[in-house]
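Researcher: I'm preparing a figure for a lab meeting and need a structural model of a single chain. I don't have an experimental structure, so a prediction will have to do for now. The sequence is pasted below. Please return the structure as tokens so I can convert it later.
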Amino acid sequence: MEPVRHRLENRVRVYIFVCVLAYRLLAELQWRLDKFSERKGVWKDADAFIHDIERVERVEVRLGHQVKNWHLNLTGISDKTLEMIGFKGLFKETVEVDFNM
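Model: Understood. Here is the structure written out token by token.
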């Protein structure tokens, strides 16, 4: 944790909560990579995976009453890693119908 620049107790608590939550999510990702990968020592791969995933962008396209959602910049390695750790459909294409237009 970096220095906390908040003075109110509630803000400090929220800051610490967010830091602990981020750490637990990272630990879960590292555990899943270690469990489901055939290679050993994949703890460093979690940082590379997060770096690849942060580049993913969601695009929403409206075609008449249809709304399509695509995710761009998803690399093949990230897609395989998502499938390996059990999140295969996380960035799948979705099509919705919007009759409110």
